[in-house]
Amino acid sequence: MSAVTKIMNQNLTKLRPAIQEDADRIEQLECELFPDNCWNSRTIANQIDIGAGWVAERDGLVVGYALVAKSDNLADLLRLGVAELYRRQGLAGQLIELSLANHPAVLTVQKGNPAIRLYCRHGFKVAGVVESAWLMRRA
């Protein structure tokens, strides 16, 4: 994909806070991306209610999302996903930054997941191990 195409694609993608009506589409995308561990729409809707969520929308479809639990002093990036067709356009990074809003943050990621490089680029560092996953933190 050329640099011009990437810029054009980004300009057509809208980033906005998640709303309840997004829960079903986020679930569909979750199950495409994480078939062995996808959240259902009820869990997603509850997280949108109590936490913070952002979506990337293209032509009226949710093509990416971030779900976060926030407290006064810490954000927990619970879920992050971008549809295959829309990867490598900077959407995941934009969703990380919007959803965390400069809060110190933590996340858990499976060892060997290529997204670890993305998280490192956004200031996360390995802070520990939880079963077969890395616990990552950013100040």
CATH superfamily of the largest domain: Gcn5-related N-acetyltransferase (GNAT)
Q: Name the overall outline.
A: globular
CATH architecture classification name of the largest domain:
3-Layer(aba) Sandwich
Query: What Rg, in angstroms, do the CA atoms define?
Result: 15 Å
Q: What order do the helices and strands follow?
A: HEHHEEEHEHEE
Summarize the structure.
With 139 residues, this protein is of the alpha+beta class.
Write a structural description:
- With 139 residues, this protein is of the alpha+beta class.
- It has two domains: 100 residues, Aminopeptidase (3-Layer(aba) Sandwich), CATH 3.40.630.30; 36 residues, no CATH class.
- Helices cover 34% and strands 35% of the residues.
- It contains five helices and seven strands.
- The N terminus is likely disordered.
Entry keywords:
single chain; 139 residues; alpha+beta; Aminopeptidase; 2 domains; seven-stranded mixed sheet; 5 helices; 7 strands; 34% helix; globular; disordered N terminus
Outline the fold blueprint:
Elements: H1 3-11, E1 13-17, H2 23-33, H3 41-50, E2 52-58, E3 61-70, E4 75-82, H4 91-100, E5 105-110, H5 115-121, E6 125-130, E7 133-138
Parallel strand pairs: 4-5
Antiparallel strand pairs: 1-2, 2-3, 3-4, 5-7, 6-7
